[in-house]
Structures are given as C-alpha cells and as structure tokens.
Amino acid sequence: MDENKKINLEKDIIDWTLIMGQVTESDLIKKFEIKKNQIKKQLLNLENKGVIKKTKSFNKTRYAVNRKSPAGVSYLKQMRPSKHIRYGKKEIETNLDILSNLVDRFDVIPLDKAARFFNTNKHAVMNWARILQEQDMISIHYPLMGTPLLSKKNAVNKKIHEKKYVYIIFSFLLALVVYLISVV
What we know:
This protein has 184 residues and is of the alpha+beta class.
C-alpha cells in the first residue's frame, strides 16, 4: 500500500469513527472493503499516535476518537467544521461543502450522525441537505422508521433497500399484532 493511500485510509477511518461515534473492526471492514489485517494495522498505528482509543464492551472491541489526547484533540480541531466559513488552500469551504464531501466519501450517512459530526442540531443539517438536494448533489431517503439518510445522488445502495424491506415487514407485523389485539 503506497503512502498516499495509507494516509487517505487513515483519514477515512478517523472520519468514519468520528461520524459514527464508535466503530468495530467489522464495521470498518464492511465500510472500506479491505482485509482485516490492514484494518488492524491502521487501528494499531492510530492508537499508537493517540488519535483513537480502544474500549471493550459486551465482548466487542470498539474504537472511538480520543478526545483527551493531544493528537485526538488536534485532529478534531483540524477536521471539525466551525460555525464560521473556513478558508482552505485556495477556496472557501462552507458546511455545505463539507457535508457534500462527506456524503461523496461515505455514500450514505444517517442525518443524526452528520449532526453529531457538525456539532449542531438535526434541523440545521436537514436544511443544508435540502439545499444540496435541490441542486441535485445528494439524495435524502426517508425510511419508514428512523432517521433520514443522506446519500449520493442516484446511488443504488443495498443498505437502504434492505432497511426498507425490514421496515415494511416490521410494519406488517405491527399491524397484525394491533389487529389481533383488537379482535381479542
């Protein structure tokens, strides 16, 4: 793995961990579709740098961004968008740009996770998402239950379709239970 891909994978792992709050190795393997030993190397490297920390709960090892170490805090300051416009190398980067880039990089992001990433409420992120949707840059999927999902425009995602069927089945089962209770 060349150095640029390694650095990009590190950034993607940290960003995905920051978006989701906590992740497991299997979450990262599914998300980035790479081998387990590569994920382990990256996680060990990031843990040694102090950017992420490892915790064990319910017999699972979970990883989260270390908000107490200097490396973790500096990464958070560098990556977390501020409430003001940030001046990048050559162009101005707004929260809309950051949200669009996140959706492009990670295909599908739940609205509540994006709100946590931006350290703001869901309504603000939803307004940004609607603006991007009007410009045909992203799609907003409203599942039957749960938080809306932000995805790439015209992206066919198995996860969205699988959840859709699960929600439909759950709805039918719930309706059946309500019907049976009302009959008895």
